[in-house]
Structure formats: C-alpha cells, structure tokens
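Protocol step 4 of 5: obtain the predicted structure for the target chain.
Materials: sequence only (see below). No template structures provided, no constraints applied. The aim of this step is simply to have a reference model before the mutagenesis design in step 5. Sequence pasted as it appears in the construct record:
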Amino acid sequence: MKVHGLEYPRDYKLLNIGSAPDRFQALTAGQISSAPVGVPLDLVAKKQGFNIIGYFADDQPNFQFNVYIIKRSWAEKNRPLVVRFMKAMVATMRWMENNRDPACEYLTKEMSISMDHCRYAYDYNWKNRIWDRNADLNVEGVRTIINLTADQGVLKEPLPQPSKYIDPSYLKQALAEIGKK
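Step 4 output (structure tokens):
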C-alpha cells in the first residue's frame, strides 16, 4: 500500500478477515473498501467495477504467499508423515507445472472459476515464481514478510532471521527420497 501512496495506520486499517475468497466476499458485500484478493479474483473484481491498486508480485517481487505451518515438536515426532506430505506437495506442484489444462479443469471446479480465469492465474503464478515446482519457500520472501510485519509494529528490532521460522529438512528429505529433477 505504501508503494501506492497509502500510509498505515493513517490511511487504512488492517482487519483479519480470512482467505482470499472470504476477503472477496466482504469486498463485494460492501463490508470493506479494499482487500488483497489475488489472481484470478482480481479479474472477477475488475468485471464488477472495482479498481485494481496493484499486484504484490510487482511491488514486492520477493514475497512468500503461501506456507505450511506446523508445530516443530509435533513435526519431529511425526517426521515420516511430514516428509510424505512434502513429497505429495512436490509431486503436485510438478504435475501442475506440466499439466496446465488438466490442472485448470480440476481447479475450475474446486474454486468455481472459469477456465480462462484459471489459465490466467496459472500463468501468472508460475511467471511470478509464486508457485515453485519443488514446493520450496522463497527465503527472501519470508524476510520481506518479517520486514513488513515490523513496519506494522508487530515485530521489534532486532528482527529475526527467516531461519527462525523455516526448517528445510523435511523438504530436503522429501526431495532426496523422490530425486530432485
């Protein structure tokens, strides 16, 4: 928002509303005046007369959009299960990367979007490295989130390193077991 001339908390409030579909619903119902909705809901919003202020990927090229969060003690106690989950995520991302139309056929049903909207989102997410073929995190993107959280006053100096929140050992083990291609 700052990149587009808006200052927090002077110009806007932050509300925790939920996922992109929840935010989109609140926006279209007039409960809020703006929201991050993501691709392809941006196209739907535009068709309904909303203005697009900008895109995260344009303003923050290093931004971690999605993460898998788990309690460390539980994860280590259930390591084989977590590694199996990461293997499934890698297999899914690799399949999606190589199967655009079948992936979109599935996603159109799950997300109630058109095939054109899905293809647009698919291309956008791969082009902007929002999706990773190995289900890997963007470490600099996590650093960006830490910095943005500090800008909002939630975190104080000295800021933690991304490694405080990231344990790559599960993904590394998953990749070793399936063979990194």
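Step 4 remarks: DSSP finds nine helices and no strands in the chain. The chain has a mean pLDDT of 90.
Proceed to step 5.
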